[in-house]
Amino acid sequence: MTTPAWLSSQLAVNVLDARSLLAAFGVLGVGMVMFAETGLLIGFFLPGDSLLFTAGLLCTGSGGHGVRLSLGPLLVAAAVGALTGSQCGYLIGRRAGGALLARDRSARLHEGMRRAEDLLGRYGYAKAIVLARFVPVVRTVLNPLAGALRVPIRVFTVWQVIGGLVWSVGLTLAGYALGSSIPNVDRYLLPLVALIVAVSLIPLGVELRRSRRHAKAEEAGG
């Protein structure tokens, strides 16, 4: 018994490779990955940043695999997946509490939890929720952690929507803009993705630097 070609391509998909995911599932895959990465702890390893950027690139016909996506549906799928996933993660954490996080044995996930707790303690709810979107693993863990810590649902919802839209729409449009302006940009896809991920960490770096300066100023004044 032979397996249909379309099914074979989906079964062979590499979930860690953005181009493989997009070739197999298209726009629907973007929404699914955004939801899983931001709403389910098992999705912490998924390539959110590179997927958004590569998907935007494919809207211009670049990026290989013979795949071309439509920008409008892509932006909707990315935003809806990111926002509903984050809200779902919060509700799971609110219902299950910290036990859900404590049961997971992944060292990487627990490191993400420590960083998420540090963000919440250092910057308060609003800044932490927005900044977490730009840090892999932390954006997965912070949502259930916020629920477990009983962050007010209205505060969480407002700031996760703001951060989610800036992250999902911003990275997608960055890929689209570069694909539209640079010929054969797909040749430089891997370094470009690395650059985008690095740039996405700049807001966190700026906030950490400000916080350290503020702490030093308080110590000097004390």
TrEMBL record:
TM stretches of this protein: 21-46, 66-85, 155-176, 188-206
Topology within the bilayer: Multi-pass membrane protein
Family that this chain belongs to: Belongs to the DedA family.
PANTHER family for this protein: INNER MEMBRANE PROTEIN DEDA-RELATED (PTHR30353), TRANSMEMBRANE PROTEIN (PTHR30353:SF0)
Keywords: Cell membrane, Membrane, Transmembrane, Transmembrane helix
InterPro entries attached to this UniProt entry: DedA-like (IPR032818), VTT_dom (IPR032816)
Organism, as annotated: Streptomyces endocoffeicus
Keyword Oxidoreductase: no
Protein name per the record: DedA family protein
VTT domain span: 46-176
Subcellular location: Cell membrane
One of the Pfam families matching this protein, by short name: VTT_dom
